[in-house]
Amino acid sequence: MSKNTVSDRFRKVDVDEYDENKFVDEEEGGENQLGPDEAEVDSLIRQGNRMGALQAVLKNPPINTKNQNVKDRAEGLVLKVLSSFKSTDIEKGVQSLDKNGVDLLMKYIYKGFEQPSENSSTVLLQWHEKALSAGGVGCIVRVLTARKTV
Amino acid sequence: MSYHSFLLEPISCHAWNKDRTQIALCPNNHEVHIYKKDGSNWNKIHVLKEHNGQVTGIDWAPESNRIVTCGTDRNAYVWTLKGDAWKPTLVILRINRAARCVKWSPKENKFAVGSGSRLISVCYFEQDNDWWVCKHIKKPIRSTILCLDWHPNNVLLAAGSCDFKCRIFSAYIKEVEEKPAPTAWGSKMPFGEVMFESTGTSGWVHGVCFSDSGNRVAWASHDSTVAVAEGGKTAVCASLTSETLPLLCVTFITENSLVAAGHDCYPVLFVYDSNKAALSFGGKLDVPKQSAQKGMTARERFQNLDKKATADSKEAVLESVHKNSISQISILNGGKAQCAKFCTTGMDGGMAIWDIKLKTTLSAC
Prior knowledge:
The complex is a heterodimer. Chain A is mostly helical. Helices cover about 60% and strands about 0% of the residues of chain A. Chain A is elongated, with a radius of gyration of 20 Å. Chain A starts with a helix and ends in a 5-residue tail after the last helix. In chain B, the strands form seven sheets. In chain B, strands 1, 26, 27, 28 and 29 form a five-stranded antiparallel sheet that branches. Chain B is globular, with a radius of gyration of 21 Å. Classes of the chains: A mainly alpha, B mainly beta. Chain A: One of its GO terms (molecular function) is actin binding.
C-alpha cells in the first residue's frame, strides 16, 4: 500500500483522452492552407495601398490547418497591416469588408490580444471598436463559438 | 400585446392547452404549475408534483388533453386528467442523463424526448402491456439533444444538438402507424434513418422548427445564426449571421417567415425567399416607446466621462418587454401557416403574448 500512495502522478492524467465517447471534430483538409501571401501583402504595404493590403491579408485564412507556424505567421502579417493604418482610416478599412471579412478580422483581433506585444493592444483596440460597430456582438459570439479558428 | 409576470424565477418551459385558457409551466423547480385564465388574472389551479429534478420540457396534446413532462431526473411522465386531478404515468426512457426536451407527435400517438445521453427516445403506447415503451435513435448523434420538432406527417423528427448539427430523423414506429408517403426529405424512412444533416453553421442548435407544410426546417444556432433548409433532391440551406446575441427559440409563422427570440430579450422577424434561397432580417418586433431624454448637466456629463469614459446618457436599462432572455416561443392562434398570436416566456419569469397583423408586409402591434 505504501508504494501506491507515494506518487501523485495519477492526478495529472488527462482522463478525457481515455473517454471513448469523446467528441472529435471532423477533419477537414487543411494541409494546403498556407495563410495570406506574404510577398503580395508586403509589396502592397510598401506601395502605400493599405486597403489593398487589408483585403490581401484576409485572404486564405489558415483556419483548418494544424500547423501552428502558419497560423503565427498569418497573425504577424495581419498585425503588420493593421498597425500600418492611420487611426482615421480604420473605419474606412472596416467598411470595405463584407460580413465574412468582418468576422475574420475580429478573429485575428482576438488572436492578437492573446499575445500582446509592444504597441499591439492599442492598435487592436482601435480596430476592435470599429469592427464591433460594423459586426455587432454577433461577430464576437462567432469568434467565441468557432471550433476552428485562425 | 400583453405581458404577465408570473414569477421572479425563470420559467423553464411552458405549454398551452387546446383552447388557450390554461398554461402549464415549470417555475424552475421540480413541479409543474397549471394556471387558468380568469378575465385578466391567472389563477393557479393545479400543481403537478412527481419529478425529482427540474422539469425541462412540457408538452400539452391538444386533442387527447394529455400532458407529457420530462426532467433532469431522467424520467418522463404522461399526465391524464381524471376528474379534477392530473394523474401521472411513468415512462421508462432508459437514459442515463437528464432529459432536455419533449414533444408530442401531431397525431399524439407518440412523443419524442431529447436527452443528454446523446439519444432521442421515441415513446409509444403498447396496448397489450398497457405501458409506454420507447425506442432509441442513437447514431450519429454525438452530444446532447437540445430541441425537437415533428414533421406534420407524424414520422419525421427534426432534432437540434450540441454537436453543432440539426438533423431530420425518421421516427417511424410500425406498431402504431402505416408506412408514410414520400416527402421532400426522402422516400425511404426506416426508423432512425437520417434524412438530413446540416452543415455550414457551427454552434449548439438551440431551437428547431418545421414549417407548416414540413418542406422547410429552420434552426437557431449559438453562433448567432439562423438557417433554413428546404427539402428536395439536394437540400438547399440558407443561413443568416446576425449582429445580435444568440437566439434560443425559433418558429415559423407563415411558410416564408419566422420569428425567433433569445438572449437579446426581444422577438425578431426573418423572411425566407425560396427563389433566391436566402434568409433576410425582417425587423425587431418589440419597439419600445422612446423614453423622454432628460437633459444632462455639465457635472453629470463630466462624471460619466470620468466613471464610464463615455459622454452618452444611455442608461443600463433594458427597454424591451422581457427583462431577461426569452427561452421559448409557442404559437397560440393560426398554426404555423397563418399565425396571428404567439407567446414568449423567459428567464424573467414573465410571459408575453404578441399579436401579428398579416398584411402584405408583416407588422406587429
